[in-house]
């Protein structure tokens, strides 16, 4: 039932943390309204049209004014109404008739999912791993969280597959991947999606099953999928390991293998891939390529004596000969859950049939193999994980080739961060300068970023923030290319009671002509290291822009069109920005500039901890992006800083590993 409410005005409970105005008046020099991370105040009357499927409660939520950091999310109020069943909210202040991209979907458990107008985008942005502090935010147990995701996947996967099968397949594998930048590593959701794929498109899963262990996850992922076909993921959530062990029926695999040809084909494909990797490990051991130590043959000793010295002598180019798969760990795991899964799918028996001759005494040969070969390999595999794969730095290798003139300079070969970290290198520093100039020239020829500017936050992700900010400064036009901005503390610093108020500071870099001097200047600006909860006066940024425009007598077409804030601060809720936008627009009009002269604000949280980049929303005047990956930076450069939801999704599945996936049925 559709209910239209105009009188009295209705306000939905705001998010527990949001940028807000301390008063409702248009800001002036005399009485500035600071835009802070604070307990939100309610704006003046805003007519609201609400379409709802259930009654909306109007109670005021308890608000937590502080932001918790390094959980990387803001704390939220402990009230279920924060996930109210609102299907469509159209605030007239936005001035939009089409609110298609602002609609929300909800499931039976009142879990709110945003709709992006594309089933694949919905699947990509809404299915995410449970944040570390999610219990504090929603008071939702891990089981409830995964159940909500399973219900959503059940309804969304058919829609996405009908819309674009190949993209949906890539998004399913994106859930599994732990190796590729921008992947989610959400194993529970991937297992559910793989089971759905097996039931609806078995040949497609069979065709791409081997890619799981090759590119998208640990070898045990194969076993997880096979186990999920015997015990559905929801059953794994509903029962403890003890309950599953009590009802453990090893005959279920035998029955399924005998009577279900699709399961049999998939099981054989998985076991073949598993045995191939184990055979490769055994061959390396046979040829004495592995640096096994005496302690590897002792199950009771974990000795890493002198290993720290040994790791430094590893030959990076020959390391592929020293690496072994995780096959032995899967066979000899001490994890009760993993051991139960291995028994359920007959892992040991299936491997023995592929490794041992039928004429041999399988049980006796397997025991000998376990003690003399598999156990040492497992210990070696666990020990090698401490130093990981050591590979020669491809960035420095390329710069050395540029220096030696053995290769031509490729402007798009390196990213800004990769170049700037070698500026002061005594060996390849000059090559890095040449590479930077070539990259800037290529982007400039495309006419990108000429009407852009940036604010650099010298925080935890300083190198990323400054590299992107310096590139934007280099590409902007006069007078903006001679000015930089960061955030710094005010003069009175006697009280460090969070949240700390940071003020934008405008600096001139006029006279600094080379990239080394500019980058050195940026790195010397005041830093925010160690300060987690902060307030930033965003209005002062627009004040500074307007002041420069008036002083330089700039025309509207010379104004900044897009303003970037590169930071590593999470937890901001920019819905209050709409009020700020209206105030800033009024300020610009007073100075003779229209709506088109107000810069679009792009807030990019560069923190490395996000499993996958997320596109929070684009409202009038602001875009919020979270996450960092090489592909995302490439998209940033290719599209001139113009981010759309499909850009973020496309870069997440753009790596070469995804190009091997194929839809068969």
TrEMBL record:
DUF7788 domain: residues covered: 463-643
Residue ranges annotated for the DUF2828 domain, each copy included: 112-214
Protein name per its UniProtKB record: Uncharacterized protein
Origin species: Malus baccata
């Amino acid at each position: 039932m559709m209910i239209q409410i105009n009188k009295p005005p209705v306000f939905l409970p705001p998010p527990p943390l949001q940028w807000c105005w301390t008063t409702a008046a248009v800001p002036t020099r005399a009485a500035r309204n600071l835009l802070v991370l604070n307990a939100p105040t309610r704006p003046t009357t805003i007519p609201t049209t609400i379409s709802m499927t259930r009654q909306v409660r109007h109670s005021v939520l308890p608000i937590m004014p502080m932001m918790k950091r390094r959980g990387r999310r803001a704390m939220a109020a402990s009230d279920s109404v924060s996930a109210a069943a609102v299907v469509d909210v159209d605030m007239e202040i936005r001035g939009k008739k089409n609110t298609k991209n602002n609609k929300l979907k909800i499931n039976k458990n009142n879990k709110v999912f945003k709709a992006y107008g594309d089933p694949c985008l919905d699947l990509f942005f809404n299915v995410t791993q449970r944040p570390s502090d999610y219990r504090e935010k929603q008071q939702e147990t891990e089981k409830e969280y995964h159940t909500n995701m399973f219900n959503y996947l059940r309804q969304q996967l058919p829609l996405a597959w009908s819309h674009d099968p190949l993209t949906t397949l890539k998004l399913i594998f994106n859930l599994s991947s732990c190796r590729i930048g921008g992947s989610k590593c959400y194993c529970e959701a991937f297992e559910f999606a793989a089971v759905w794929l097996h039931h609806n498109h078995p040949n497609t899963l069979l065709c791409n099953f081997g890619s799981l262990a090759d590119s998208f996850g640990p070898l045990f992922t194969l076993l997880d999928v096979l186990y999920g076909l015997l015990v559905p993921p929801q059953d794994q959530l509903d029962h403890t390991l003890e309950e599953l062990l009590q009802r453990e029926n090893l005959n279920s695999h035998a029955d399924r293998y005998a009577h279900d040809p699709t399961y049999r084909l998939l099981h054989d494909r998985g076991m073949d891939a598993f045995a191939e990797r184990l055979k490769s490990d055994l061959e390396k051991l046979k040829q004495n390529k592995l640096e096994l130590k005496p302690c590897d043959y002792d199950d009771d000793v974990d000795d890493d004596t002198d290993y720290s010295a040994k790791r430094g002598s590893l030959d990076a180019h020959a390391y592929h000969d020293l690496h072994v798969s995780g096959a032995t760990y899967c066979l000899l795991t001490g994890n009760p859950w993993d051991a139960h899964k291995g028994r359920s799918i007959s892992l040991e028996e299936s491997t023995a049939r592929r490794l041992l001759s039928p004429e041999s005494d399988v049980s006796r040969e397997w025991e000998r193999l376990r003690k003399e070969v598999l156990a040492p390999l497992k210990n070696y595999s666990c020990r090698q994980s401490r130093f990981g794969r050591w590979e020669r730095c491809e960035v420095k290798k390329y710069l050395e080739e540029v220096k030696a003139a053995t290769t031509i300079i490729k402007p798009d070969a390196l990213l800004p961060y990769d170049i700037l970290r070698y500026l002061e290198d005594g060996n390849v520093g000059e090559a890095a300068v040449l590479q930077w100039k070539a990259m800037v020239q290529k982007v400039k020829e495309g006419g990108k970023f000429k009407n852009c500017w940036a604010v650099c936050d010298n925080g935890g992700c300083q190198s990323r923030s400054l590299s992107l900010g310096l590139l934007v400064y280099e590409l902007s036009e006069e007078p903006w290319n001679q000015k930089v901005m960061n955030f710094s503390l005010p003069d009175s610093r006697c009280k460090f009671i969070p949240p700390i108020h940071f003020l934008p500071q405008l600096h001139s870099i006029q006279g600094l002509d080379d990239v080394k001097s500019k980058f050195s200047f940026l790195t010397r600006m005041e830093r925010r290291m160690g300060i987690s909860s902060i307030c930033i006066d965003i209005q002062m940024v627009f004040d500074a822009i307007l002041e420069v425009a008036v002083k330089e007598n700039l025309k509207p077409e010379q104004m900044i069109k897009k303003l970037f804030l590169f930071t590593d601060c999470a937890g901001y809720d920019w819905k209050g920005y709409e009020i700020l936008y209206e105030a800033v627009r009024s300020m610009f009009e007073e100075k003779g500039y229209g709506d088109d002269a107000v810069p679009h604000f792009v807030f990019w949280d560069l923190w490395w901890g996000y499993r996958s980049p997320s596109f929070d929303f684009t409202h009038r005047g602001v875009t919020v992006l979270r996450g960092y990956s090489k592909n995302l930076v490439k998209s940033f450069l290719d599209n001139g800083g113009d981010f759309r939801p499909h850009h973020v999704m496309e870069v997440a599945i753009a790596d070469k590993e995804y190009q091997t996936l194929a839809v068969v049925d």
